[in-house]
Amino acid sequence: MTTRLEKDPLGEKPVPATALYGIQTVRAAENFPISGLRPLPAFVDAVIWIKRSAALTHKETGRLEARLADAIVQAADEVLAGQHRDQFIVDVYQAGAGTSHNMNCNEVLANRANELLGGTRGAYTPVHPNDHVNMAQSTNDVIPTAMRLAALATLPALLQAMDTLGADFLAKGTQFDHVIKSGRTHLQDATPIRLGQEFTAYGHTVQRHRAKLAQAADWLRDLGIGGTAVGTGINAEAAYPALMVKYLQQVSGLELRVGQDRIQLMQSMGDIASFTGAFRAYVLDLQKIANDIRLLASGPRTGLAEILLPAVQPGSSIMPGKVNPSIAEMVNQVCYQALGLDTTVAMAAEAGQLELNVMMPVMTHNVVFGLTIVGNATRVLAERCVRGIEADEQLCAYWLERSPALVTALAPKIGYAESAKLAKEAIATGLTVKQLVVQKNLLQGKELGEVLDLRAMTEIGVPGGVGLPGGG
To answer: Catalytic residue at 268?
Structure first.
């Protein structure tokens, strides 16, 4: 491999002749052979957005010669169009704050801009990675800004998937509204509920989390770009923050705001922690819903089997005909991963000292990765599982008919103690609650029908009307 020799404050080092990156990126690659993971595309895009916007800002203020600014913008546009992606090589686990990734981006844009201006790679003239591409910037305001931009840019796919999943659950709620089944608490028989009510509740859960997540994301729109080294804005012009937000909005399509206290935005990762806290809350409920789907579909002969899942693949390499809840199992695994990512973000958010939190590279990776995999899992759950779910109405009715919890409807008529005795007898004899009521002549005719009206038990009210007088 042919190389070129580059020099930085630490000395000289060979760099691959064809590389758009330079000596500082090479040092980082040598220093951090940790995971083999490269920066996620959203993180690359976010930093390139910042470099592009800075070039336009400095062109507008006259601080950067127009031809240099235009070359940087053209190089940035090539990256944003998908070119040169193999040139961003710094491992996710790198030096604190993200200096290595920032310099990787600076070097790639500088070298490509110089090529566009007729120069050569590695010469860094007329465009220099620090003096021109990084003008009025510091890693310390670039990376926290990029973290916010990357999260905001990744979030819409998750929100769209949540909209889809919520709507699909609500559609199943309507489809299954007539299916009455046994409710369960503590994994024990409980009073009746409609399968449609269960699925409608899942839909509302997803919708509520969607609203909370979008609300938490609003805090990320406040940008600290312009804070430079410690938040005070040294080496940045007064017009710089507002112009940066203007150009960042144009290139990203995101709604953004100038941060009111850039020192605070550099010191604190609280906005990210709040956002990932809302994300975590959704993941916890998504996990619960996936578990419920697996439980309701357990069987087909020795479990609940109240719902039938679409078969997406053979379930066993040894047991013919077996169908597993494969999509729900995938969601479980994604949720476990996402909770681990969130725990890392929470610990990293606490780890800042004084003017800076240096744990931003791993935070950014985990936030973007978490949003991505949970968004994909949410979408696949909707498309390949929930939409194809069917109810086994006969089995729902079978379990409900045998539930001793139906005595709850009798309590207002015969009292709690007598109802408890009846439940125990139903379990001991194998008779249904209705059979025992008829056998013991506890209720008759219309009153029996009203009190043991299964549909009525799934709505607020007292089946059959008020029974025993107050205090009786």
So the answer is: no
Q: How many CB atoms lie within 10 A of CB 2?
A: 7
β-strand partners of 82: none
Q: Are 8 and 24 in contact (CB under 8 A)?
A: yes
354: tokens are 């004084």
Q: Which two tokens stand for residue 384?
A: 């390949």
Report the residue count for the chain: 472
Report d(CA 402, CA 228) in Å as an integer.
Answer: 70
Rounded Cα distance between 42 and 48, Å, is: 10
In CATH terms, the fold of domain 141-394 is: Fumarase C; Chain A, domain 2 (1.20.200)
Cα torsion 188, 190, 194, 197 to 10°: value is: -80
- Dist CA 372 CA 156 (whole Å): 10
Write the DSSP symbol of residue 192: E
Structure tokens at 392: 């086994």
Q: What would the pLDDT profile of 116-167 be if each residue is shown by its tens digit? A: 999 999 999 999 999 999 999 999 999 999 999 999 999 999 999 999 999 9
Are the C-beta atoms of residues 335 and 286 closer than 8 Å to each other? yes
What does the pLDDT read at residue 464?
80
CATH topology classification for 402-458 = Ribonucleotide Reductase Protein R1; domain 1 (1.10.40)
Active site residue: 252, 316, 326, 403, which one?
316
Q: What is the CATH number of domain 3-135?
A: 1.10.275.10
- pLDDT, position 320: 64
Instruction: Tell me the C-alpha distance between 298 and 301, whole Å.
Output: 8
* Structural contact between residues 192 and 180, judged by C-beta atoms closer than 8 angstroms: yes
- What percentage of the chain exceeds 90 in pLDDT? 92
Task: State the virtual CA torsion across 279, 282, 284, 289 in degrees, nearest 10.
Answer: -150
How far from the centroid of its chain's Cα atoms is residue 443's Cα? 53
Residue 386 CA, chain-centre distance (Å), reads 19
Q: Are 58 and 136 in contact (CB under 8 A)?
A: yes
Contact by Cβ (8 Å): 385, 116: no
Rounded CA-CA distance 360/187 in Å is: 43
Beta pairing, strands 257-258 & 222-223: parallel
The first and second tokens of residue 314, run together, are 């053979």
Every domain of the chain and the residues it spans: 3-135, 141-394, 402-458
